[in-house]
Design a protein that fits this description.
Length: 419
C-alpha cells in the first residue's frame, strides 16, 4: 500500500451517530514508480513524438500497441490521443460516410454521439433494458427500420449485453459492430474479452479508466484495411512502417493517397506510462470486482435502492457502480443525493434535469433529436432513477462499509417528512 492509499484508508471514519466518508472518491491513485521512471527516461531523451524520420530505437507507442494487441488477442492496434478520437477513427476506418446512419445504445456518454457527429453520420438511438444495456428487440427493430449498417455498441459503465444475441442480430441485418470499451478494459462475456467481438474496438485511457494517461485511446482490429486506414488517418505521415502491430506495407499502399491525416496521434510519453501500467491491469480489475461485491449487497439492502442483476456470463470490471432509486419523487432523490454528498459520498444522478459533470443523457444531445424516429420510454424511465458512484481502486473494505452506511443514512434523511 502506498502512503497516499494508507492516508485515504485512515480518512474513513464514523463521526458520532452519522457516518462520514472522509476520503476523496474523485481522487485517482498514483501511477506506479515504473511509469514515473519511464516518463523521466523519455523526457531526458526528448523523443516524445512517436515518429522519427531516422530512428534506431523502437518508439514507446509502437511497443505499447504491440503489447495491447497481444493482450486483447487482436492482430492490429493503434494508439491515439483520446478514446473519443479512437471512436471517430474507427467509424471512418470501417467506411462510415457523411449522412450514414449509426445505431447507438441510448445509455452512453457524450463522446460517443460526439464521435458519430464528428464523422458526419446520423446517430439512431436504441432503447435500453433494466440491465442498462442495449434492448435487443429495439436493436432488431431499429436495424430493420433505419437500414443502418453500423452499430456503435457502448458498454457504458461496464454493462455488457448478451453478446451472442447482439452479434446474431447484427449478422442478420448485415450491421458492422464498433465496440466502445471505454469502461470494459479486461472485461468479458462468457470468457471472450470485450473488444474481440466487433470489426473494431476502442478503449480510453483517460484518468478515470482502467489505466491512466490523463488522455489517450487505443483501437484494435483484425481487419488489415481498417487498421491501415485508422493508422494513416491518425496522422502517421509516411512513417507507418514504424508501427509494429500493423498490417503489411502493401495494405497501406492501397490507402495512403486517399486517406486524410487527422493528427490524432498518441505521444511517446502517454505510451510510456501506459506500458508500465498494463502489467497491473489484472490485479486492479480483481480489486475492483472485490470492491463492487463488498458494496453490492449492502446497497441493495437499503430501502428504495436496487442494484442491477448481473448474469453469470458478464465478466465485468467495475470502476464505477450504478444503482436505481425506486419509488421516490424527484425532491426526495435530490435530498438523498445531497445528504450523501454532505457526508462525503458524491453520487451522480442521471435523472437531474441539467447535465452535470460526467452525467449525460440522450435528451441532452439535442443536435441528434431530429434524427430519432420515436421516444425511448425505457431509457427515460431507467435513467431517471439511475445513480452512479465512482469506485477508486484504493477503497478498502472499511471504506466500502462506511460508504454503504452513508447511503443508508442519506436515504433515511430523504424519507423523513419535510418539517
Ligand atoms: C462510455 C464512454 N465512451 C467513450 C469515452 C471517450 O473517452 P475519452 O474521454 O478518452 O475521449 C468515454 C469517456 O469518458 C466514455 O465514458
Amino acid at each position: 500500500m502506498t502512503d497516499i492509499q494508507a492516508t485515504q484508508a485512515k480518512r474513513t471514519q464514523d463521526q458520532g451517530s452519522r457516518a462520514v466518508f472522509q476520503g476523496d472518491l474523485s481522487a485517482p491513485d498514483p501511477l506506479p514508480e515504473a511509469a514515473i521512471e519511464a516518463a523521466t527516461r523519455l523526457m531526458r531523451d526528448g523523443r516524445l513524438f512517436r515518429y522519427g524520420e531516422d530512428r534506431n530505437s523502437i518508439p514507446e507507442a509502437a511497443l505499447l500497441e504491440e503489447e495491447f494487441a497481444a493482450y486483447t488477442g487482436r492482430a492490429f492496434c493503434l494508439g491515439v490521443n483520446s478514446g473519443g478520437c479512437a471512436l471517430f477513427l474507427a467509424l471512418k476506418a470501417v467506411g462510415v460516410e457523411p449522412g450514414d446512419k449509426v445505431l447507438v445504445n441510448a445509455f452512453t456518454l457524450a463522446p460517443v454521439p460526439g464521435a458519430i457527429a464528428h464523422a458526419g453520420a446520423e446517430g439512431v438511438l436504441v432503447d435500453i433494458d433494466d440491465r442498462f444495456v442495449v434492448d435487443l428487440e429495439d436493436l432488431d427493430r431499429k436495424a430493420q427500420s433505419s437500414g443502418a449498417k453500423f452499430f456503435m455498441l457502448s458498454y457504458m459503465r461496464g454493462h455488457i449485453p448478451d453478446m451472442d444475441e447482439v452479434m446474431a442480430i447484427c449478422r442478420r441485418h448485415g450491421v458492422t459492430v464498433i465496440e466502445d470499451c471505454a469502461h470494459t478494459m479486461g472485461a468479458d462475456w462468457a470468457g471472450d474479452l470485450t473488444g474481440s467481438f466487433g470489426q473494431v474496438a476502442c478503449f480510453s485511457t483517460q484518468t478515470f479508466k482502467h489505466i491512466n494517461s490523463g488522455e489517450g485511446g487505443l483501437l484494435v482490429t483484425d481487419d488489415p484495411d481498417t487498421a491501415a486506414r485508422a493508422i494513416l488517418m491518425s496522422g502517421s505521415y509516411m512513417l507507418y512502417a514504424q508501427h509494429r502491430a500493423r498490417p503489411p506495407v502493401e495494405v497501406f499502399e492501397r490507402h495512403r493517397y486517399h486517406t486524410p491525416n487527422c493528427s490524432m496521434r498518441m505521444s511517446g510519453l502517454t505510451a510510456a506510462i501506459l506500458r508500465a501500467q498494463l502489467p497491473h491491469l489484472k490485479e486492479r480489475n480483481d480489486t475492483w470486482r472485490h470492491i463492487y461485491r463488498r458494496l453490492e449487497g449492502q446497497i441493495d439492502a437499503i430501502p428504495h435502492l436496487r442494484m442491477p442483476k448481473r448474469p453469470q456470463a458478464e465478466g465485468f470490471v467495475p470502476s464505477s457502480l450504478q444503482f436505481s432509486v425506486e419509488g421516490l419523487g424527484d425532491e426526495q432523490i435530490q435530498a438523498f443525493v445531497q445528504a450523501a454528498a454532505q457526508a462525503g459520498v458524491h453520487v451522480k444522478w442521471f435523472g437531474q434535469a441539467e447535465a452535470v459533470g460526467f452525467t449525460s443523457r440522450h435528451d441532452h444531445w439535442r443536435y441528434m433529436a431530429e434524427q430519432q424516429d420515436g421516444p425511448l420510454p425505457r431509457a427515460d424511465r431507467l435513467l431517471h432513477g439511475l445513480c452512479d458512484l465512482r469506485l477508486p481502486v484504493w477503497l478498502k473494505d472499511e471504506d466500502c462499509d462506511v460508504i454503504a452506511l452513508v447511503l443508508a443514512q442519506a436515504m433515511e434523511l430523504a424519507r423523513q417528512p419535510a418539517a
